Amino acid sequence: MRVLIVEDERLLTDSIAELLREKGFETDVAYEGETGLEYARLGVYDLLILDVMMPGMDGYQLARRVRGQHLNTPILMLTAKSGLEDRITGLNAGADYYLTKPFDVRELLACVNALLRRQGGQVEEMRFGNTILDLASATLVCGEKSVRLSAREFDILRYLFGAGEKNVSKETLLARVWGYDSNAVENHVEVYIGFLRKKLASIGSDVRIEAIRRLGYHLEAGAE
After folding, report:
1. Single pTM value for the model
2. How many Å separate Cα 68 from the centre of its chain?
3. In what order do the strands lie in the sheet with 125-128?
């Protein structure tokens, strides 16, 4: 299960991320709303944990933008505000649960598990065009043909499948696949995109990875 945490208090964010990793979750973090929205739009997360009080785009605005993108990912809101009107505002913005700070880590974990159970079983595959990305085996499948992906190829294509026809920038792929502290450069992304195009072609997929100058990559399907 993959969780995105959007919280401007870095110490708290990193503590929650580490706690969830210890429990077996994959976690990504963003320290402000705009970046959080960019990540959420990828559609690869099973749960979003949003702080309400953030500079710029706050948690309420972020939740509304996420729901405006027709993303049904469960949202857990964290806030120091405990008033009834604040809880109503959060729920009306699209949150599924509202947890007041300070909270016990056991309560946080209980909320996370409850929201994920409500969501149902974990998604095992993603589809685009005539092609399936099997998440359990990191395999691309088209009809009776299939091909295995390397770890980086899989991570890149999972983001692209999640984004679909929306552009994903090279900078985003570098940060999310190679990591913020990596020495990788944009050419690394281009090389792996080349690998993926060849693998898609090898199984007869109608999915194409299109490049848009300065905007990044997106997927298209069907005849050119």
Report:
1. 0.59
2. 16
3. 125-128, 131-134, 139-142, 145-148
- Angle, alpha carbons 157-142-45 (nearest 5°): 35
Judged on CB neighbours under 10 Å (0-12, 13-18, 19+), 114 is middle
- For residue 85, give the amino acid letter: E
Query: pLDDT tens for residues 103-157?
Result: 888 888 888 888 887 665 445 678 899 999 988 788 999 999 999 999 889 989 9
| CA torsion angle 92 98 100 106 (round to 10) | 180
- Determine contact, residues 66/49, Cβ cutoff 8 Å: no
pLDDT tens digits, 190-211 = 999 999 999 999 999 999 999 9
Q: What is the pairing mode between strands 47-51 and 216-221?
A: unpaired
At 82 the pLDDT is 65
